[in-house]
Amino acid sequence: METLIFGRLNYHDIPYDNPIIMATLGGAIMLLLVVAFLVWYHGQWSYLWREWFTSLDHKRIGTMYIVLSLIMLLRGFADALLMRTQQALAEGGVAGYLPPEHYNQIFSAHGTIMIIFVAMPFFIGLMNIVVPLQIGARDVAYPFLNSVSFWLTVAGAMLVMLSLGLGNFSHAGWSAYPPLSEKHYSPGPGVDYWIWGLQIGGVGTLMTGINFFVTIWRLRAPGMTWMKLPIFSWTILVTTLLIMLAFPVLTVLLALLSLDRTLGLHFFTNHLGGNLMLFTNLFWIWGHPEVYIVILPAFGIYSEVTATFSRKPLFGYTSMVYASLAIATLSFVVWLHHFFTMGAGANVNAFFGIATMVIAVPTGVKVFNWIFTIYRGRLEFTTPILWTLGFIVTFCIGGMTGVLLAVPGADFQLHNSEFLIAHFHNMLIPGALFGYFAGYAYWFPKIFGFRLNETWGKRAFWLWLVGFYLAFMPLYALGFMGMPRRLVHYDNPLWQPYLVTALVGTLLIFAGILCQILQLTLSIQQRRLLQENTGDPWNGRTLEWSIPCPAPAWNFAHLPTVHARDDFHVTKQSGQAPPSLPYSAILLPAASGLGPIMGALAFLLGFGLVWYLWWMAAVALAGLVLCLLVRSLDDETEFLIPATTVEATERALRRIASSPYNASQVSQ
Amino acid sequence: MKIHHSSLSKTFTGFVLSLILTLGAFSIARGWTDLASTMRHVLLVLLALIQILVQLRYFLHLDGSPDQRWKRWTLWYTVLIALLLLGGTLWIMHNAQMHMMAGMESS
Amino acid sequence: MKSLSQDLGKNGNDYATEDTHEDLTLLGFWLYLMTDCLLFCALFATWAVLHNNTAGGPSAHDIIDLPYVLIETLCLLFSSTANGIAMMALQRRNTRSLLGWLGLTGILGVFFVAMELHEFLHLIESGNGPQRSGFLSSFFTLVGTHGLHVSIGLLWLLTLWVQISRKGLTAPIHSRLQRFSLFWHFLDLVWVAVFTFVYLIGGDL
What we know:
Shape of chain A: globular
CATH class of the domain at 1-274 and 593-612 in chain A: Mainly Alpha
CATH topology of the domain at 1-274 and 593-612 in chain A: Cytochrome C Oxidase, Chain A
Largest interface: B-C, 49 and 53 residues
Oligomer: heterotrimer
CATH architecture of the domain at 1-274 and 593-612 in chain A: Up-down Bundle
Strand content of chain B: under 5%
């Protein structure tokens, strides 16, 4: 009876005997309570619910995605700090302060969070904000689905966060290879948290992929042919294609592992006919395209930023498009390079090694395109361009070590070593994260109506860049010195100086993050000073800069007609004033509370499945079906904004230097 | 994209062809035992491919019209990736099996 | 290269201008089906890798009853055809005929699911459940995932049937029927691959 009600949940699952976790947990709960209290104190809960949580406005959903990503970044970075400190200390007779089972959970959580709940929501947030604006649309193809996708991502992230205080997280690494991740070796709820956090977030991502593919395919402004599509939207189109093709494999993989664990099937077990190498194979069929899923949007951002601040059209636009398409297809024929050492023969390894080297070619094309865009341009050293320059230089190093690892012979020496850790951080931090930061600074005014403080943005950049080199270059050396990854303790005094250097680098990055927090706070305080009245703070080239800052709820009062690539730039050059057209009423998607409700139900579903609370999972599943039914019977999913409101808001935003907050009030 | 008007004759053609192909496949699998098994399997795969094309054409109404270009693009790209996934997996796993488990019972 | 970009460019002109909501949902649904293709593809790959791993248990040859599978297959094919005829009734806006053919679609679908469940239960009762071996795990999961899709389709069909008989042929219902029809034909298509590879070839290895 008790197991029927409580599943395998037990009060012993709260790690009250672990001071580190309890302090973190206490701090987190306190912080949550303080924030909740402050919101309540200012009477803002109903505002948050009405205008944000239930909103189907792509810009608001995008902003919430980025907020989620930044919160998760803090968590993921805290994990990094813990690991670096542990490794700097734990040499020889010193055990460090983290017990092995805790340390294993930390590196597993760090990887999972950084990729699935930091990188993914960050670029999905940016594309939510930017893509409809760039292609001249009023919203995405399926605004309701967009809200559900977001709340599913939140549900997944919350499951991973909950594992901190209830039970434990997976200790099997972010890739959760069996047999370690099988029930026999990991009987606790940790791996199940990993499975269901990823599964729920992954379904949300898959739906977002379909949503944005259709948005770009069908909602482009009249005249915006494929070769006039802004390059960021191009890279997003390719990214969503990859999402649609890769994420179903993750869904299957996670389902099979959970069947093994929950129902005792034999897909990846090492007895009764399971094949654990099949897991590795399927994991990387998803995992390698996933790398390009997080990196291609950043390539798009770098392209936009480089062209804007070089005051030149992007060099080799067409080659950029074809390079993205080539990367998309090639990313499906290189997955074996993640497991060269699994035991396939030389011919198999050679094929995938060569394919891996080939994929460096379109990437190289892109790097040259950015350099040639800058060449003889009038480069303006703003924060976004600093992130871009830092990326170009650093990414080339990562790319070269990648080609090195693509040689199976070299990989046999370097796999599973710190060299690999250095390599993929070298790809993902400058490759993806720097790009998102550039996009964050670049498009911030479009949402909030004021720019970010440049001084603190530049300080943050330099700290991140220097911190990155200090933190990861020593790891390359450690890899050559034979240090394996994921060590909680080691007996080689030669390694320690390198690890201490890496810790110093991590602390510099920490200072960079503090600068970013300071930058945001200061910018909000100085928002009148930094206010943006023209709608075009950077002298931009694409359609999103043709509308006011902050963008009104309907984006475009008059849907634009596109005549050229970089249409807005061409219009500005022609010197023609935009014709004053009469305003008309606009239909927009109405807010819906079903998104957050479905997110909550998905969270309960995941929770029930992790803890074997079958009744809870069944109720939550039924609730989800009911939500869909309610939605399908709802005929009033849109509301009309009268022409007078549109006109008044547009005039206020374009002429009178009013507070951005007032402007968004009008649009409600 | 227009909504595709199907006709009774189209549906009927699709049905009869699918029926023949299905019955053909089952009778090959059951009856033609004197044929080499590889040959039999090739025939079965061929029949399945034809039936899939028949159903795409007559049931899912996929044809060469220009307003279905996006459907064909997405379908063929999906098929390409699916084949890479299947082929790659079988090649890799078979190869690994040969090298790692040779001489051992697969069970 | 040039022709590709021209082709793509043309596409942009065609579609970027006028679009109805209905077209958008149908396009999205088609893409969902493409992702489902990949999902089944991963399951087929799993089956292909594991189908020899019988762990001393039965092989496909021992558990497959071809005449039984043939009846299942015909159920689904007839159901798919009935659905095709129902869509023609939809074009003529003949509600009674539509409800009749959709009913037949559903009943044949129920037969299919019932036969599959019976097959599964029989296997489990004789000690050859999915926990028995890697082969049986992959067999149950691949065939079962298809069966789960069919079952969800049946529930969907039921809600549509009730909506049509209550509200008549409204525009949203019309659009939902279009999507359901795609889904149903798609499932028959997947089944062609299932019976060919898992039952006919698998049972013959």
